[in-house]
């Protein structure tokens, strides 16, 4: 259950292991004490919720999340689902959408890996860069089925801000009410027209790679947010950083989780976005989206 009184980072990872796939130990984020320190700092700054979108076969660790919540006071909303085709285990190829949905529903109803921790969101359901594979189509069907069975919202992964409109069409075709969908990683490509088209359909969008200036500069993220808010879409946007690496943590020389509130929010305020609008992006919109009946 989300705490609606504080800010929420809508798309994060606290325990993830993509080191084998990327052949890089930096991609194993699992350092407990540095993460505890950062979560305590976030709580002191009013960030009370983290939506943790690590799912099956990405290094998810339910007990790690439970320990973090106990030791830091952060509220972690966990996920169920599968990522993108490149990360699917072999059995997905021969498993039906109905069976995949049943796996997700089982976690939602019974808890993750034998713990009492139950997912609050179906995430991060992804597509490949500039294409959607046959198995990804099946996974979006499965996510829709799990949504219909449980009421949980769906949070997606787009690879470098591609295929978002196509994701919207797939979920709409499976009968998902689009106010229950947030399209992820919309801030890695300078394509406002694409974002406007998605927002016009009724979905939420995430600017969730804030601080990753090597991919796309935060100055452009600010300009895009100005344009979206000016068009009246401030109530359909959520923010986050998508931290995935050890080197992203402050203890290891990275910007750390606090960068969003310490550096990016002042950039927004300096660009004329009001404190009330910032509160909408970081508090009210996540509280509305993740606080729907099915996610309680």
Concise overview:
It contains 10 helices and 11 strands.
CATH topology: TIM Barrel
Stretches with pLDDT under 50, minimum 5 residues? none
Which CATH class?
Alpha Beta
State the domain count. Answer: 1
Characterize the largest beta sheet: strand count, sense, and whether it forms a barrel.
Answer: 6 strands, parallel
Q: Please tell me how large the radius of gyration is.
A: 18 Å
- Assembly type of the shown chains? single chain
- Strand percentage lies at 5-15%
Based on the structure given, which CATH architecture is correct?
Alpha-Beta Barrel
Q: Spatial order of the strands in the main sheet?
A: 6-7-8-9-10-11
SS-derived structural category: alpha/beta
Shape designation: globular
Number of contiguous helices: 10
What are the secondary-structure elements, in order, as H or E? EEHEHEHEEHEHEHEHEHEHH
Mean pLDDT: 97
**In percent, how helical is the residue content?**
40-55%
First and last CA, distance: 5 Å
| Name given to the CATH homologous superfamily | Metal-dependent hydrolases
| Number of separate strands | 11
């Amino acid at each position: 259950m989300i705490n609606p009184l504080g800010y929420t980072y809508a798309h994060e990872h606290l325990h993830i292991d993509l080191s084998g796939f990327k052949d890089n130990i930096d991609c194993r984020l699992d350092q407990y004490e540095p993460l505890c320190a950062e979560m305590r700092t976030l709580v002191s700054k009013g960030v009370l919720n983290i939506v943790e979108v690590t799912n099956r076969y990405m290094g998810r660790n339910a007990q790690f999340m439970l320990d973090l919540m106990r030791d830091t006071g952060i509220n972690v909303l966990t996920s169920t689902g599968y990522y993108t085709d490149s990360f699917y285990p072999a059995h997905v190829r021969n498993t039906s959408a109905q069976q995949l949905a049943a796996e997700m529903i089982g976690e939602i109803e019974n808890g993750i890996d034998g713990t009492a921790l139950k997912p609050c969101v179906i995430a991060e359901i992804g597509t490949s860069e500039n294409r959607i594979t046959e198995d990804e189509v099946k996974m979006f069907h499965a996510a829709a089925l799990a949504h219909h069975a449980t009421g949980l919202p769906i949070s997606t992964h787009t690879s470098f801000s591609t295929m978002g409109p196509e994701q919207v069409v797939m979920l709409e075709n499976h009968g998902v009410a689009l106010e229950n969908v947030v399209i992820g990683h919309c801030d890695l490509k300078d394509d406002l027209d694409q974002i406007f088209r998605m927002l016009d359909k009724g979905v939420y969008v995430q600017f969730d790679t804030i601080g990753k200036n090597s991919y796309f500069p935060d100055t452009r993220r600010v300009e895009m947010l100005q344009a979206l808010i000016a068009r009246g879409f401030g109530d359909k946007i959520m923010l986050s950083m998508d931290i995935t690496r050890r080197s992203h943590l402050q203890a290891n020389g990275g910007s750390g989780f606090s960068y969003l509130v310490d550096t990016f929010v002042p950039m927004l305020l300096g660009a004329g976005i009001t404190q009330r609008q910032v509160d909408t992006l970081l508090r009210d919109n996540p509280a509305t989206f993740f606080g729907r009946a099915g996610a309680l």
